[in-house]
């Protein structure tokens, strides 16, 4: 029995060394990035003959991941008296990415009574470093036979870069 045990020890050591080598060559699972603190988003556009009529508003949050590649948003886009349904234009690093449209929905706490909002939520992988995200709220009015778009723009800087 002793002879057999002595023959297996080198074999066992060889197997352990091979397993360690193979495990070192296997790709590691990438770490998941963590999102930072939600940044509040709150914008409104006004119009009408004296500029005090609420046309549209957007409220919610935006968050950036600590790997600088992704961001996520949770927004509520409310149409109050905008002539055409409002929208939010999204730019990343000053490059146009998408437009979020109002298309009906349900009442929310941020939307004035009897008006409805469209919820927009997404996680966006930019594929490269996200330095900032710019949101432009666009509403419109038709006053004195003149159509006008009214906008408000905010840029949200990524706190991780």
- Helix/strand order: HEEEEEEEE
Query: How much is the radius of gyration in Å?
Result: 27 Å
What about the largest sheet?
4 strands, antiparallel
What is the count of helical runs? 1
Topology, number of strands: 8
Q: Distance between termini?
A: 65 Å
The tally of domains stands at 1
Which of globular, elongated, flat, extended, rod-shaped describes the shape?
elongated
Portion in beta strands: over 45%
User: Helix coverage percent of residues?
Assistant: 10-25%
Low-confidence stretches: none
What's the average pLDDT?
87
Question: Order of strands in the sheet with the most strands?
Answer: 1-2-3-6
Structural class: mainly beta
- So, CATH architecture? Sandwich
Indicate the CATH class. Mainly Beta
Query: What is the name of the CATH topology?
Result: Immunoglobulin-like
């Amino acid at each position: 029995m002793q002879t057999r045990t002595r023959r297996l020890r080198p074999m066992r050591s060889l197997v352990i060394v091979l397993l360690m080598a193979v495990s070192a060559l296997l790709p590691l699972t990438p770490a998941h990035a963590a999102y930072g603190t939600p940044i509040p988003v709150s914008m409104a556009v006004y119009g009408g003959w004296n500029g005090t009529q609420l046309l549209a508003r957007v409220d919610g949050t935006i968050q950036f991941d600590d790997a600088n590649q992704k961001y996520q948003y949770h927004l509520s886009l409310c149409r109050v008296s905008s002539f055409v349904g409002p929208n939010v234009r999204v730019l990343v690093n000053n490059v146009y990415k998408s437009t979020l449209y109002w298309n009906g929905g349900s009442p929310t706490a941020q939307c004035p009574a009897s008006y409805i909002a469209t919820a927009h939520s997404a996680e966006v992988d930019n594929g490269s470093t996200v330095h900032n995200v710019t949101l432009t709220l666009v509403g419109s009015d038709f006053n004195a036979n003149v159509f006008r778009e009214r906008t408000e723009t905010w840029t949200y800087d990524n706190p991780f870069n």
